[in-house]
Amino acid sequence: MSARNLTQILTQTVDKLSEPQSLKGLFHQHQDGKPLPSGKALEEIVDLSRAILFPGYYGKSLIHLNTIKYRIGVNMDKLNKLLVEQILAGLCFDVKSDEDSCSPDDQERAEAMTQDLLKAFPDIRARLATDVQAAYNGDPAATSYAEIISCYPVIKALTNYRIAHELHKIGVPLIPRMITEMAHSETGIDIHPGAEIGRYFTIDHGTGVVIGATCVIGDNVKLYQGVTLGAKSFPLDGQGNPIKGIPRHPVLEDNVVVYANATILGRIRIGEGCIVGANVWVTEDMEPNTRKYKKN
User: Fold this and answer.
1) C-alpha angle 55/185/102, rounded to 5°?
2) Which long-range contacts (CB under 8 A, 24 or more apart) does 112-121 make?
């Protein structure tokens, strides 16, 4: 191919890729100094959060009780600055339009939202402690809490989820979903930040688990790999568009166990103490303390 032909092909391709019609819904025009949230910065936020919540397991490993307050303090200061910056970037980006949505009050909003999240860290750690215990108690192969925290993908996924859920509750846009999708890529566990998950929750093995946005999960619930807590086909409005914001995912009450590759769909209730067997398809309520298995 001649250089002239190559130049012509590149020029035509660039022209087509720059046409406004082809960019509809796929292009965001930035204003100076107001970029999208940074994936790299969010990775650092997750790393710092894990180091704060599980000191000695993440971040600097050379840490002991004499220096832990200093280490956590340094990490919290870094985390505060990064969060304000990234939350502000999220507030300045409106995914519903092609225009910048920043307002003069957003800097103060970002700082207030960051403070709300940081104040929640003690409770996030307390909840994660119950998740570690549930993973340890539920796996005979586990030798220690240290092994659970260091090696089990569920703890990484739940750390991201519990941080993202707090951000979701206080109204931070975009960033909660980015944080849970980071864990999805890392662990294969897909938890929407809008889901509500109680204490002592665990997922054995983890790969392929999907937990939808409006799921409600009680205490002492255990899932195995490949479980889907999803939605059935959703209703459409008069123009044929999906109706957003309605509860469409399952409710799992306390002490439920769902085995590998089970699929539970729709706004149904799985009663307390139920057991859902492997490879089962569930689309109707289950009464408390009942079991559903796939028959041979």
Assistant:
1) 85
2) 113/87, 113/167, 113/170, 113/171, 113/172, 114/80, 114/83, 114/84, 114/87, 116/166, 116/170, 117/83, 117/163, 117/166, 117/167, 117/170, 118/76, 118/79, 118/80, 118/83, 120/166, 121/49, 121/52, 121/53
From first to last of the 296 residues of the chain, give the pLDDT tens digit.
677 788 888 888 887 777 777 767 665 555 555 567 899 999 999 999 999 999 988 876 667 777 788 888 999 999 999 999 999 999 987 545 445 557 778 899 999 999 999 999 999 999 999 999 999 999 999 999 999 999 999 999 999 999 999 999 999 999 999 999 999 999 999 999 999 999 999 999 999 999 999 999 999 999 999 999 999 877 778 887 878 889 999 999 999 999 999 999 999 999 999 999 999 999 999 999 999 998 76
